[in-house]
Amino acid sequence: MSNVTVINHPLIAHKLTLMRREETSTAKFRSLLKEISLLLAYEVTRDLPLKLEEIKTPLGVMEAPVLAPEKKMVVISIMRAGQGILDGMLELIPSARVGHIGLYRDPRTLIPIEYYLKVPHDVEERDMFIVDPMLATGNTAVAAISRLKELNPTSIKFVCLLAAPEGLEHVQEEHPDIPIYTTAIDECLDEHGYILPGLGDAGDRLFGTK
Ligand code: URA
Prior knowledge:
Blueprint: E1 4-6, H1 10-20, H2 26-44, E2 50-57, E3 60-67, E4 72-78, H3 82-92, E5 97-105, E6 112-118, E7 126-131, E8 134-135, H4 139-149, E9 155-159, E10 162-163, H5 165-174, E11 180-182, E12 184-185, E13 188-189, E14 195-196, H6 202-207
Parallel strand pairs: 1-11, 4-5, 4-7, 7-9, 8-10, 9-11, 10-12
Antiparallel strand pairs: 2-3, 5-6, 13-14
Helix pairs in contact: 1-2, 2-3
Uracil binds near residues 194, 198, 201, 202 and 203.
């Protein structure tokens, strides 16, 4: 899968295992997702351009790297579980702007319907990170990417915690130009579209709604 990056790191692997455990509390689940998201943010911003700026340290003058100022970012959270990744990413890139997209699946047609969209007015000048912890069937991701592409951001990356092979295939088929970042690829989906072995419903575990 050419456009998929699986972020391998012992800390991430360990924290993900803790998140998967059935007995992990809501508070712990939330803080683990935030910690992993910091590491995800580190990885997905690896190619940000730098420029040199003259600075003075207490001992001398040097040309030091700073982020190129024209590189503006926006993190788009797919409601509602995207919030869990958003919080961690913002800690590492506090200057990023935030957008939200909400989609639900019509129970009759199974087509994702948009019920909420709010993005910064200058989204066309920003590199976009679309975040959602679980890439399962890929239906929501495909619909969100299609809609957000219409807004013409500078670039788009899709960032998740856990992916199913089916979802990765679906997104890559519909949007081969979009890089996908995940920390693990699980076995398959169950008959309800949940990732196996997965970690259950990320939104419920994050917000304690079950
Ligand atoms: N959404 C979730 O929260 N969990 C899954 O396993 C699949 C989709």
